[in-house]
Amino acid sequence: MELSSAVSVLEQLNQEKFCRAFRRLFDIVFHVNDLQFWCELTGISPKSAWKTLSKQGWRRLGREIFVRGTIGTMEEVVALCNLYGLHKKDIINMVVYVVRASNGYLPRALKRLPLSYDIVRVLLELQDVLIPVTRLYWLPKSGLPDSLRVINRYAHSQRSQWNELIIATFIRVGKPLRLEELIYQSMGVVPVPIVLKRLFIFMLNILPVSKIDDTDYWILSDWEPQVDLSLIDNITTLLTEQGALPLDEIIKAITNYEETKIYEILAFWPEFVLRSDDTYAINISPLDDELLAIIVPALLKHLTKGEEGIPTSQLFKYAESIANSHGLNMHVRDFKAFLKGWGEVAIVGSRVYAMQKAPFHSMRLGDVAYLVLMENGAPMLYTELEAEIRQRRNYIYSISSVFLTEPKLSRPSRGYWALREWGLIEYDPQIHTRIGEVLISIIEQAGRPVHKTEIRRQLRRRGMNMNEGTLHLDLIENERIHQVARGVYALTEWNLSFRDLFRFKFPFRLSLPDGNPTIYELEDGVMIEYFISKYCLELGRILVKRYINEYFSDLKQYTKYSVTDFSGNRYEGWVDRVDEGRYQFLGLQRWYKTHKPRYGENIYLYIPSNEEYTFSLLTAEQADIWIYKED
């Protein structure tokens, strides 16, 4: 026999009988211990009993007290406290907890409290955790800016006199005001909460004020005769086209208005400003220290809220609203230039991130350089900074141009880079003009190519002690000096190649200058000079260096390629990855064995522009013939 349905019906009947009997004992209020006692005595589950009681209008007052209906007077609250030994602060803390859990919205909190609206308002007046933003919203004081706390003086509907507050602000300022500026001038609040904006807009629509057509400005209704939009448009067009002008020139240009009317509108309309040189201009504020002190703290707080960044256009509107609240205007062009040089943010595509929250592998190299310098805490040598960036981002292309155009960086001295925000004196290239002349004289007096170690020794003898990085930059940027081999420099007019150096019999091994190959741009491709190392001969390979990799679209592991020599013979090989981002061509043993190049010599790769994974490999003599044939 199936008993489950019968048992459930019996349980439901028992709960209903329990609740009816319980209400005879406790008509208005009971303690949680009362419920526990009668549940244990009758065998009813406390959870199911409370579920049924809550449907009958019972609500919690704290963790232990349950009330049916609504407590409407303070006498009832006092009687409840005396009955169960509660303190006034216990009731207040409970009300604060429920209001905060309701996001500060009193109507929502009242649905969970067995207290009337008036009682809740009285209890909230006795605490210092929440403050009234509007009549129906109480928000945590700790989470609001200090300026927002002044709202506490105006938020009580019974005492606040919004009409006097708004009208008095217009009279005191004496000019049209945008909504944000009106709220700031009257209450000192910035940025403005949405709830407060809505409240002000509601009040503006019932007060003797009006909004000027096609603008964001509000004025007192009595001021409407002063506003001539046609005259304002004429002056705006004139100042936009010609820039700042004195009053007499504006009057001469606008002939269909009286002088007094033009003067009054220039003084009254907030879009015009009188400058220190007695000329009038469009009121666009420069992003100076005064304006930045206003908008930067708010922007930082806004950017650190989310992880996804903020579109530049949206961030500008936010910054503009803050500037407008202070009666200031700014240009989007100036704002974007400021963002590029602001070290606290990174721009990735069209979005702006707080620097520490930006996606690292999508950041601009200038922002990566900023982070490296910030971690280092001091200016860094160019080569060290470049190496650190390449290691972090696995970047293989030129970086020097990035440094030169990055507004966050500065050059405090030759070969060093720093953060512009550190305020170090910028490097002056004229200081090193004499150094360049000294370097040329050292090489001229030697009458042959000179290694940088010898150059540094000669500089010290002349009282010029330079570190290696600074010397390197002075040498490679001197138009009359040419790097023939790694660390070896000669005069450009000597026209020496790497092969010419072997006749000077240097006491050290020569190697091709890294990153400085000879590249010939031909009609259908490029011819690249390649230095043969011992590993090339032993392994039958060509290491794909940075300047070679640029001419291959997408190298992948084990991709096959074809190599032809000068005679048209074909050699098949494959691509092998050495490490992350670096590759080599293998399978060239037969070519090396046939043409017998020697260590220290150069061979040439001809890479056609219209074919992938195909190139020609030539000796120096064969390359000369090929290039001559192309010419």
Short description:
The chain has 631 residues and is an alpha+beta fold.
User: Strand order of the main beta sheet, please?
Assistant: 21-22-27-28-24-25-26-23
- Average residue-wise pLDDT: 78
Low-confidence stretches: 1-10, 146-160
Give the overall shape, derived from the CA principal axes: extended
* Total strands: 28
Structural class: alpha+beta
Termini separation comes to 106 Å
Describe the structure.
- Helices cover 44% and strands 17% of the residues.
- Mean pLDDT is 78; it is low at 1-10 and 146-160.
- The protein is built from 26 helices and 28 strands.
- The strands form 8 sheets. Strands 21-22-27-28-24-25-26-23 form an 8-stranded mixed β-sheet.
What are the main properties of this structure?
631 residues, eight-stranded mixed beta sheet, three-stranded antiparallel beta sheet, 28 strands, 17% strand, disordered N terminus
Topology:
Layout: H1 4-25, E1 29-31, H2 32-42, H3 46-55, E2 58-61, E3 65-68, H4 74-84, H5 88-101, H6 106-110, H7 117-125, E4 130-132, E5 138-140, H8 162-173, E6 177-178, H9 179-187, H10 194-204, E7 209-211, E8 217-220, H11 229-242, E9 245-246, H12 247-253, H13 259-268, E10 272-274, E11 279-282, H14 289-303, E12 310-311, H15 312-325, H16 332-341, E13 345-348, E14 351-354, H17 365-376, E15 380-381, H18 382-393, H19 400-405, E16 409-410, E17 416-419, H20 433-446, E18 450-451, H21 452-461, H22 468-476, E19 481-485, E20 488-491, E21 519-521, E22 525-531, H23 534-539, E23 542-544, H24 546-549, E24 560-564, E25 570-579, E26 582-586, H25 589-595, E27 602-608, E28 614-619, H26 620-630
Parallel strand pairs: 24-28
Antiparallel strand pairs: 1-3, 2-3, 4-5, 6-8, 7-8, 9-11, 10-11, 12-14, 13-14, 15-17, 16-17, 18-20, 19-20, 21-22, 22-27, 23-26, 24-25, 25-26, 27-28
